[in-house]
Amino acid sequence: MSEPLQGKTVVIVGAGPGFGRTLALRAAEQGATVVVAARTASRLDGIVDEVRAAGGTAIAAAVDATEPDSVRALRETVAQHTDAVHGLVYSAFAVPSMKPLAQTDHEQISRGIDLSVLGALRTTQEFTPLLEAGAETPDAEQIDAAPASSSVVMMASAVIHHSRERYAGYKIAKTALVALGHSLATELGPRGIRVNTVAPGYIYGETLKGYFEHLAGKYGGTVEDVYAHTAEKMDLRRLPGEREIVDPVVFLLSDAASAITGQTLTVDCGEFHT
Ligand SMILES: NC(=O)c1ccc[n+]([C@@H]2O[C@H](COP(=O)([O-])OP(=O)(O)OC[C@H]3O[C@@H](n4cnc5c(N)ncnc54)[C@H](OP(=O)(O)O)[C@@H]3O)[C@@H](O)[C@H]2O)c1
């Protein structure tokens, strides 16, 4: 039996040390050729080495998703390797202000929107022709067959479901990203491209562990205390690990999700019932 991403090329923009690295390894294990893109070339090279050591295929390409010329150069690099892209994951993220709106200058909010929302838009627009080339043309005479579509997955956050103090800048950007996903799904669906967002509550990996260490230092206590306090709000009394966020993304990239577009999948161990 073939793997779910066999024969597909998947581009991950904003490939960091946690989610991005784990997704690259998992997507390659599931058969994809993976392109990892972000600003830190040394980290990308490390991810590529790990994928190759595990028997997968990957290339690294530096990109700054806030720079149109850089996103264009990424697309040109990818186009040198392939005529078609089947999956695009937009995960680029920088820690937002985490201050009340009254103390957040508009420039900070704009920067969050530029990276999270406009970065996703300019990347999707740049890759649309390659994504369209990755989709099968529907056969009008075979209405009961599901043609393979291409898939864009944009990483939102369960912050879209709450309005807690200090999360406003992050919420504004991620909620706009969900709205972008809806509109792109409408516009790109006729070209065979699905667009969905995934909203993790937390991803218990490198980035979050660092944040919990910061909170433990700031308020006293240990990382385990911060984890326990956070996890008590979840139905499952724990936080999702990287693989538990990555696997739903792999599902949305795969043809098993061929009829799913314009959706937001919340993955949060049951913190919010949406
Ligand atoms: N971690 C969580 O608990 C959590 C919870 C909910 C949602 N999420 C979402 O899930 C996604 C992955 O989270 P994560 O914790 O793995 O994030 P992360 O470790 O911070 O990885 C995101 C990566 O984005 C890259 N990036 C930042 N600015 C960029 C730019 N201008 N152009 C290209 N790449 C850029 C950074 O790499 P470079 O510095 O090398 O560019 C960074 O490593 C994010 O979208 C985040 O909002 C995370």
UniProtKB/TrEMBL annotation:
NCBIfam families: PRK07890.1. The lineage of its organism: Bacteria, Bacillati, Actinomycetota, Actinomycetes, Mycobacteriales. Keywords: Oxidoreductase. Belongs to the short-chain dehydrogenases/reductases (SDR) family. It comes from the Bacteria. This is SDR family oxidoreductase. InterPro entries: NAD(P)-bd_dom_sf (IPR036291), SDR_fam (IPR002347). It holds the Pfam family adh_short_C2. It comes from Dietzia cercidiphylli.
